[in-house]
Design a protein that fits this description.
The structure is a single chain. With about 80 residues, this protein is mainly α. It is about 75% helix and about 0% strand. The chain has two helices and no strands. The longest helix is centred in the first third of the chain and has 40 residues. The chain starts with a helix and ends with a helix.
Length: about 80
């Protein structure tokens, strides 16, 4: 009797884990296909650099200072 329960539990274990695994594999494949389709019809967002065209770091330093000041204010 106990051996039958163990074999039934192992059957359920294998069935459940294979179901979850196949669902996750299917989900990954669908998301990859969706990403390829979306990249065909929509252009990716262009990233703007913080450094201006002349290579000056003044804007970058101002942004870093603003972030640091915000973090210090938030921690208090």
């Amino acid at each position: 009797m106990e051996i039958d329960l163990i074999t039934e539990s192992l059957k359920f274990l294998v069935f459940g884990m294979s179901t979850v695994f196949s669902f996750l594999v299917l989900l990954v494949l669908i998301l990859k296909v969706q990403g390829k389709i979306m990249s065909q019809y929509f252009s990716p967002i262009e990233q703007k650099s913080v450094v201006n065209s002349q290579g000056s770091l003044t804007d970058t330093l101002a942004v870093v200072a603003a972030i640091a000041a915000t973090l210090q204010t938030h921690k208090k």
